[in-house]
Amino acid sequence: MAKRAIPEINAGSMADIAFLLLIFFLVTTTMDKDTAYVRSIPKPIKTDIIPPPVSERNMLAIKANNQNQILIRDEIVDVELISDKVLKFYQANEKQNVDGNFPFYSRVSPSFIEDQIKGVEKQIEELEKNDSPKEFIDVKFQELDAWMKKKAALALYGGSSLPEIDFQANIRIEVAATTQYEIFAKIHSEIEEALYELRDKESKRIFNTSFGVLKRKNSLDASGLEEKDKLELLELLYPARIIEVTPKR
Amino acid sequence: MAKFKKSKSGEMPGVNTSSLPDIVFMLLFFFMVATTTKETDPTVIVDSPIGVKATDLTPYKQRSEIDFAYLGKPRNTKRLKDFKMGFALSLDNVVDANADQLYSTESVSKWKQAKFDSKPSKMRAPIESVITCVKADKSAPTGLIFDIRKQLQNVNALTIAYAVREVNK
């Protein structure tokens, strides 16, 4: 067969096309990453039952006025020192219950957890036998779930008991309607800084990895299962119970 | 002078540009991989405050499990007095609201629900866990943030994120 020379395609304008695409992507995309503090909003409740009072030592109220000043437990505090106050709140009684001004810790033993699980299972059986309302049974199932989680957490934690802060211990953020967002964000930043420090220390001690790495792995997994049990343990040890109080007008 | 004059031997040889497309494509792929698409150009001026140890939202953005709301002073300064406390809310999608509600916190419920409904039911995360990221200006009053929070609570969208600019301490 006679060889015929194949004519070359002129690719001179390929660069132009690629440049067009490149410029399109340069314009429509952004390089900076978005960072934020993720918080959950409580479910709206339709009840007028007054909740039981929380004792003074279990509350850490961080108040900010419209002059952007911070008040913690009747003491004017510099914004940079909020994290120290939060650290103190968690650590004061961590080793031993010594300070009556801060939340107490309880130590949960494996046998106690087993007893509780058995007790709740029995209650569920009885409720089901008596055809109780579904809501009642659901509450008990949630309770059972919480104890199961504690059991798993203790197994991960090792040791003979799991230190647990008072279930009422909470951090309240009380701001005025005209407080600047900068201060509000700063309070969240300081709380997060303290919590990170506490959790990171435990994470390094138990798992030999930093808390940041665990969190990152978890957020990259769409199902949220990666490293979930480890994070749950750390969050059980240092729970972030943050209450944001809606300012009065 | 004539000593240096080059003899006109022929035409200048052209630079070979056949690898130029390859270089540009490489650049293109770099930008495609390293960046994320902008949600919108907000019509308000937002200067975020700084913070430490914030959560990186990029994985949520890639999974479209996040909506953005921008709270700041309007770029159009003539309209400053039209808004509550001088701050307007810009949302990352069109809202079917009347003119009075359009840039106020009152349209948040409608917007959030509409954005949630627009996704096919098998492909969306439950509304409680779809993050609403509020990007507020430093000087924005916190009262408005709580208004947004209340609106989100009404449609059962129970995850909020307060945007900050991450700094390393």
What does this structure look like?
The complex is a heterodimer of chains A (249) and B (169). Chain A is of the alpha/beta class. Chain A has a domain at 69-109 and 161-245. Chain A is built from seven helices and nine strands, in the order αβββββαβααββαααβ. Chain A has helices at residues 14-28, 82-91, 110-129, 134-157, 181-206, 211-220, 228-237, and strands at residues 29-30, 35-40, 59-64, 70-72, 75-77, 105-108, 162-165, 170-175, 242-245. A five-stranded mixed β-sheet of chain A has the order 5-4-3-8-9, covered by helices on one side. Chain A has a two-stranded antiparallel ribbon with strand order 6-7. In chain A, a hairpin with a 2-residue loop joins β4 and β5 (75-77). Chain A starts with 13 loop residues before the first helix and ends with a strand. Chain B has 169 residues and is of the alpha/beta class. Chain B has one domain. Chain B has helices spanning 20-34, 58-62, 108-117, 142-154, and strands at residues 36-37, 44-45, 50-51, 55-56, 66-74, 88-91, 131-136, 159-166. The longest helix of chain B is centred in the N-terminal third of the chain and has 15 residues, at 20-34. The chains are: A alpha/beta (249), B alpha/beta (169). β2 (35-40) of chain A pairs antiparallel with β8 (159-166) of chain B.
